[in-house]
């Protein structure tokens, strides 16, 4: 019924073979550099023009060689902005020599004209042909990126014009996707298509299929400061729907090997550092952790509040206990941020906003229990404060029991 009880139950329901069989690293996602031309408000990586962390070429080649040894089918290159890394071409060439397909993220700051893209692709064509694999660009296009001077919408237009020409020619295995972080009141994609309809009207239907909208909930960095009304919650799904053993491993610019990317962050559940641990060794660590397997099977559910908040609390607790975090002012601010009591963000979703009326109204017991269930699923730690108040004020014995159960399970730490 409640989060921790659900975890225990679902672990028991999973086929034993799943936990006995080892996890496999099916793909490596490499943060080549933390440096970026932008300093986007939603950035989960805290990238900026001032950031200096990066993977140097010898280490990148070592990672790629190990990835090829694990029979990977592709490698993802991201940042920051990969095109700011002085050895990007050498890194891509190494991937292709090892016959690894490449998924390359960019904000298109470098695309001053379509010809710039053509020149870059032409330089790679011999390597792509020899490798027999493909290159897929992922270009960012949304209000977070296009509101900044380094990445005007014109650059994305130039990028698409060049790639559509390349795709239409069919002379090399190069394609692209448009990645748009979905937030409210964002007209960037509409503006993009307004321009493209004038330039290449016959290609519009093809381009529409290449748009990938990413919920802002997938980010936890600066996105924590954005109004939660902009969050679009993913469906919870079925815990037993996918029994795949293959996972994606993320390697940060500092070399940290991370089980899961943005919503967990590189300080929580790190497997080690690629400078000290090989990818095969990371596989062994993964296979010994049931929690990793649970998160892999059902990421939509356990990336929700309050589980994500629980993980954040765990990280703070570990930091204080280990002595890594000592400054009392920082500790106070971090805890206040987790609790969100002062912000009172009661707009996580229409369902949550409605459920939180239980704090001010006195609904019938059936409605109250339904409200508590919604708070259990979607609430954050600010609800802890209000649930305790509600417990003191409520006289209904059944409702008191339900509130106490919620405090003892989901909101216990």
Tell me what portion of residues adopts beta-strand conformation. 5-15%
Uncertain stretches: 220-241, 261-265, 341-347
CATH class of the largest domain: Alpha Beta
Average pLDDT, all residues: 79
Distance between the termini: 18 Å
Task: Chart the SSEs and their pairings.
Layout: H1 3-13, H2 16-20, E1 24-33, H3 57-69, E2 74-79, H4 88-97, E3 101-106, H5 114-131, E4 135-140, H6 143-146, H7 153-169, E5 174-182, H8 188-199, H9 204-208, E6 211-215, E7 246-251, E8 256-258, E9 270-273, H10 279-287, H11 290-297, H12 299-302, H13 307-322, H14 328-339, H15 350-355, H16 365-378, H17 382-393, H18 397-408
Parallel strand pairs: 1-2, 1-7, 2-3, 3-4, 4-5, 5-6
Antiparallel strand pairs: 7-8, 8-9
Helix pairs in contact: 3-4, 4-5, 5-7, 7-8, 13-14, 16-18, 17-18
Structure description:
This protein has 413 residues and is an alpha/beta fold. It folds into 2 domains: 281 residues, Aldolase class I (TIM Barrel), CATH 3.20.20.70; 102 residues, no CATH class. The chain contains 18 helices and 9 strands. It has a 9-stranded mixed β-sheet with strand order 6-5-4-3-2-1-7-8-9. Helix 5 links the parallel strand 3 and strand 4. Helix 5 crosses helix 7, helix 13 packs antiparallel against helix 14 and helix 17 runs antiparallel to helix 18. The longest helix is centred in the first third of the chain and has 18 residues. It is globular and about 75 Å long. 37% of the residues are buried.
């Amino acid at each position: 019924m409640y989060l921790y009880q659900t975890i225990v139950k679902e672990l028991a329901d999973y086929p034993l073979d799943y936990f006995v069989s080892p996890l496999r690293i099916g793909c490596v996602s490499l943060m080549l550099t933390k440096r970026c031309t932008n300093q986007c408000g939603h950035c989960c990586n805290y990238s900026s023009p001032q950031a200096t962390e990066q993977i140097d070429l010898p280490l990148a080649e070592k990672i790629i060689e190990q990835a090829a040894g694990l029979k990977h089918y592709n490698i993802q290159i991201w940042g920051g902005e990969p095109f700011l890394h002085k050895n990007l071409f050498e890194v891509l060439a190494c991937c292709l020599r090892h016959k690894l397909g490449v998924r390359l993220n960019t904000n298109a700051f470098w695309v001053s004209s379509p010809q710039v893209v053509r020149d870059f692709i032409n330089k790679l064509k011999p390597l792509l042909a020899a490798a027999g694999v493909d290159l897929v660009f992922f270009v960012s296009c949304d209000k977070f990126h296009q509101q900044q001077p380094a990445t005007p919408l014109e650059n994305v237009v130039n990028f698409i014009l060049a790639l559509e020409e390349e795709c239409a020619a069919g002379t090399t295995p190069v394609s692209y996707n448009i990645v748009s972080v979905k937030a409210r009141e964002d007209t960037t994609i509409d503006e993009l298509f307004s321009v493209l309809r004038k330039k290449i009207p016959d290609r519009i239907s093809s381009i529409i299929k290449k748009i990938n909208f990413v919920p802002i909930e997938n980010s936890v960095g600066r996105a924590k400061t954005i109004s939660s009304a902009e969050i679009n919650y993913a469906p919870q799904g079925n815990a037993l729907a996918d029994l795949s053993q293959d996972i994606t491993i993320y390697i940060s610019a500092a070399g940290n090997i991370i089980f899961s990317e943005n919503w967990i962050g590189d300080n929580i559940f790190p497997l080690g550092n690629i400078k000290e641990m090989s990818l095969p060794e990371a596989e062994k660590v993964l296979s010994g952790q049931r929690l990793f397997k649970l998160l892999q099977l059902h990421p939509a559910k356990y990336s929700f509040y309050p589980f994500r908040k629980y993980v954040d609390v765990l990280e703070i607790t570990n930091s204080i206990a280990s002595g890594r975090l000592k400054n009392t002012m920082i500790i106070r601010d971090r805890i206040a941020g987790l609790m969100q009591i002062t912000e009172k963000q009661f707009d996580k979703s229409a369902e949550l906003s409605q459920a939180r009326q239980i704090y001010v109204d006195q609904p019938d017991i059936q409605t109250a229990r339904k409200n508590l269930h919604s708070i259990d699923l979607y609430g954050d730690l600010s609800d802890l404060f209000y649930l305790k108040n509600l417990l003191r004020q409520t006289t209904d014995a059944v409702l008191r029991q339900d509130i106490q159960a919620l405090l003892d399970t989901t909101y216990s730490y």
